[in-house]
Write a structure and sequence with these properties.
Elements: E1 2-7, H1 10-23, E2 28-33, H2 44-50, E3 57-58, H3 66-84, E4 88-92, H4 96-107, E5 111-115, H5 127-138, E6 141-144, H6 147-155, E7 162-164, H7 168-183, H8 186-190, E8 198-201, H9 205-208, H10 211-224, E9 228-231, H11 234-242, H12 246-252, E10 255-258, H13 263-272, E11 275-278, H14 281-289, E12 294-296, H15 304-308, E13 312-314, H16 319-328, H17 345-357
Parallel strand pairs: 1-2, 1-4, 2-3, 4-5, 5-6, 6-7, 8-9, 8-11, 9-10, 11-12, 12-13
This protein binds uridine-diphosphate-N-acetylglucosamine and uridine-5'-diphosphate (UDP).
Length: 361
């Protein structure tokens, strides 16, 4: 049996690492990389550090508008699927690569499996929400990381093919955190002390493409007077430059703007941060897994468990709120209720696919 795995963006390389390892115990896997992310620090570094199999196809789609990017991916993925004739296509998360992969497969009558199914922010203004909903509705196998995700699917009438597996990002973190502690020298490279800084990431379109919001967030960082390490996504750097904010950051001196870092350095930066400020889905979860208080620079989150447990607080792009939570937010340790599986989600996914594709035996 042949599986085609479709990836293209940074978090998908991390998610596929543990799953691919399990899949290859049972199946032939063909990896199709759309080329959505292409800079070394957004792409190659993850393949090198995580031992992910090299893509069999690199489609080189690159950046562009949603229609251009998704359309080009759809065309190029279809060509590969026709040639390879896989039995099943596996897609991850909620990016344009996810939707293009799912659409290309379903139209060729190839079974679709979605890892991280059922996530909802209930905000259709987010491109990711549109990608998730559409992908779930054409998927045959829906691997839900949490009970909330299962409920979301049930509420939309999707009951067949839904499996509660746990979260593959937790598998990835468990496997890599010890390696990261041994190998990463990021703290000494940047002159940081454990718990002596905050860590920030910002890359959501709603924050970067909106000048007022990005300005407000950066002003809050600067006014906090905390040491803030800020590995900036290329999208964010582009807008910081366009809005003339780079100079302000440099003048302030307390915000350390650096290029995106590899996964091992990122885990070490997260674990040793006093707090994390982010609009990333994956980083919110990793903050929770590592029990680091998280301040989410959005109004809504699909990872509601982290908020319910008191380890994550939603502040949007409100300067006063951001400054207040940077000072005051302290989760109470006893509220932590682990809800993301047992670190064996990847094994479970491979086993379900094996069972289902062999007629249930
Ligand atoms: C995409 C996903 C988002 C995910 C994020 C992970 C969609 C709609 N969005 O957002 O859900 O959270 O990936 O990081 O799929 N760029 C570079 N070099 C790169 C990649 C991007 O310079 O290697 C710049 C380009 O200017 C590009 C911009 O970043 O236009 C945005 O990239 P894109 O892939 O469209 O969306 P992301 O913001 O990365
Ligand atoms: N990440 C990384 N280096 C960085 C920023 C993030 O390795 O400089 C990792 C992070 O640890 C997490 C994943 O990338 O595993 C999250 O991806 P991102 O924030 O790009 O997307 P999202 O999760 O919001 O879709």
């Amino acid at each position: 049996m042949k599986i085609a795995t479709i990836v293209g963006a940074r978090p998908q390389f991390i998610k596929m690492a543990p799953v691919s390892k399990e899949l290859r115990k049972h199946f032939e896997e063909v990896v199709i990389h759309t080329g959505q992310h292409y800079d070394y620090e957004m792409n190659r570094i993850f393949f090198e550090q995580l031992g992910i199999p090299e893509p069999d196809y690199y489609l080189g789609v690159g950046s562009g508008s949603h229609g251009y990017q998704t359309g080009e991916m759809l065309k190029r993925i279809e060509e590969v699927l026709i040639k390879e004739q896989p039995d099943i296509v596996l897609v991850y998360g909620d990016t344009n690569s996810t939707l293009a992969g799912a659409l290309a497969a379903v139209k060729l009558h190839i079974k679709v499996a979605h890892v991280e199914a059922g996530l909802r922010s209930f905000d259709k203004g987010m491109p990711e929400e549109v990608n998730r909903v559409l992908t779930d509705h054409v998927s045959d196998y829906l691997f839900a990381p949490t009970e909330t995700a299962v409920k979301n699917l049930h509420n939309e009438g999707i009951k067949e093919g839904v499996y509660l597996t746990g979260d593959v990002m937790y598998d990835a973190l468990l496997h890599n955190i010890k390696i990261a502690r041994k190998r990463s020298s990021i703290l000494s490279r940047l002159g940081l002390k454990p718990k002596g800084y905050l860590l920030a990431t910002v890359h959501r379109a709603e924050n970067t493409d909106n000048m007022e919001r990005l300005k407000t967030i950066i002003k809050a960082f600067i006014e906090s007077d905390e040491m803030i390490v800020f590995p900036a996504h290329p999208r964010t750097r582009k807008y910081l430059e366009a809005y003339g904010l780079i100079g302000e950051v440099e003048k302030a001196g307390n915000v350390l703007l650096i290029p995106p870092v590899g996964y091992l350095d990122m885990l070490v930066l997260e674990e040793n941060a006093r707090k994390i400020l982010t609009d990333s889905g994956g980083v919110q979860k990793e903050a929770y897994f590592l029990k680091v208080p998280c301040v989410t620079l959005r109004e809504k989150t699909e990872w509601v468990e982290t908020v319910e447990d008191g380890w994550n607080v939603l502040v949007g792009a409100d300067k006063e709120k951001i400054l207040r939570v940077i000072k005051e937010f302290e989760p109470k340790g006893d509220t932590y209720m682990y809800k993301f599986g047992d670190g064996k989600a990847s094994r479970r996914i491979a086993e379900i696919i094996r069972r289902e594709m062999s007629g249930g035996v």
